């Protein structure tokens, strides 16, 4: 499994967010259907601040799913969908019906099965769902989506969506796309900002470990792999990177 990667370093989160929005314009233009999966955490604010201001964005054909989601009510500040909805729907950028949401009332195993069905409807062809674009974050421990270091979910190859009930980062119950689905995407972009991500970023991007961190296992089979990082997060990198003000 291999994909070439492009590491883009931006002076600040603001320039990174602008470039990420431009990437969304570029990747979605000219298609009547654009299937995107978003992560939660710091990405929500970063994207929500910039996206409503982005010129040339036509979201009419967008469907927005989640790389992972926390099993909490949508009204809970920990709900990734809840946060995007509060930030993006009032701007008229996306409507609630464009989001593919979990059913937070279900037990976590059933929520994963239910979300798998919803993704199967979004991707009616047999085989693995291949998102047009996935936007992933990383935790300071190297987790991505809700795939955590050393967790058995890293080995799951027979599911589209997996449940997790012992997430080391609260809340403990979540659902997550599995690695095969992440690696089937047409484009994957990682976003990492702040010096708190610098050490783990160096491990992910430069160190060949025998038991790779979850984020280091992301390598789209046929797609592109982009890293959008700001200067503080890139501080420890010594590998070749592209420095950008904006893309
Ligand atoms: O728990 C989660 O953490 C990661 C990273 O979040 P960040 O706040 O450190 O950027 C996030 O990508 C994932 O979607 C989320 O559920």
TrEMBL record:
Function noted in UniProt: Hydrolysis of 6-phosphogluconolactone to 6-phosphogluconate.
Q: What is its EC number?
A: 3.1.1.31
State which pathway it belongs to. Carbohydrate degradation; pentose phosphate pathway; D-ribulose 5-phosphate from D-glucose 6-phosphate (oxidative stage): step 2/3
Entry-linked InterPro entries: 6-phosphogluconolactonase_DevB (IPR005900), 6PGL (IPR039104), Glc/Gal-6P_isomerase (IPR006148), NagB/RpiA_transferase-like (IPR037171)
GO molecular function terms attached to this record:
6-phosphogluconolactonase activity
Q: Does the keyword Hydrolase apply?
A: yes
Keywords, in A-Z order: Hydrolase
What is the protein name for this chain?
6-phosphogluconolactonase
Tell me where in this chain the Glucosamine/galactosamine-6-phosphate isomerase domain is found: 15-227
Q: Which GO terms describe its biological process?
A: carbohydrate metabolic process; pentose-phosphate shunt, oxidative branch
What the record says about family reads: Belongs to the glucosamine/galactosamine-6-phosphate isomerase family. 6-phosphogluconolactonase subfamily.
Would you name any one GO CC term?
A: cytosol
According to its UniProt record, which reaction does this protein catalyse? 6-phospho-D-glucono-1,5-lactone + H2O = 6-phospho-D-gluconate + H(+)
A Pfam cross-reference name: Glucosamine_iso
Gene3D superfamilies membership: 3.40.50.1360
Q: Into which EC class is this enzyme placed?
A: hydrolase
Asked if the keyword Hydrolase belongs to this entry, the reply reads yes
């Amino acid at each position: 499994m291999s994909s070439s990667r492009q590491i883009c370093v931006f002076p600040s989160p603001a320039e990174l967010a602008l470039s990420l929005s431009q990437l969304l314009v570029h990747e979605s233009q000219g298609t009547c259907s654009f299937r995107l999966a978003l992560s939660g955490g710091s990405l929500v604010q970063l994207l929500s601040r910039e996206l409503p201001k982005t010129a040339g964005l036509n979201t009419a054909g967008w469907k927005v799913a989640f790389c992972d989601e926390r099993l909490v009510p949508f009204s809970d500040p920990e709900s990734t969908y809840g946060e995007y909805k509060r930030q993006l729907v009032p701007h008229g950028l996306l409507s609630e019906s464009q989001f593919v949401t979990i059913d937070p009332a279900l037990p976590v195993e059933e929520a994963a099965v239910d979300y798998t069905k919803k993704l199967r409807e979004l991707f009616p062809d047999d085989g693995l769902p291949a998102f047009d674009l996935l936007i992933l974050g990383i935790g300071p421990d190297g987790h991505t989506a809700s795939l955590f270091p050393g967790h058995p979910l890293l080995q799951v190859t027979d599911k589209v969506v997996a449940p997790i009930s012992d997430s080391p980062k609260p809340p403990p119950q979540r659902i997550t796309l599995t690695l095969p689905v992440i690696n089937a995407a047409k484009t994957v972009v990682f976003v990492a900002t702040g010096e708190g991500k610098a050490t783990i970023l160096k491990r992910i991007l430069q160190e060949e470990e025998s038991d790779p961190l979850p984020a280091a296992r992301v390598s789209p089979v046929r797609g592109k792999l982009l890293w959008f990082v700001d200067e503080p997060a890139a501080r420890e990198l010594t590998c070749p990177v592209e420095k950008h003000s904006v893309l």
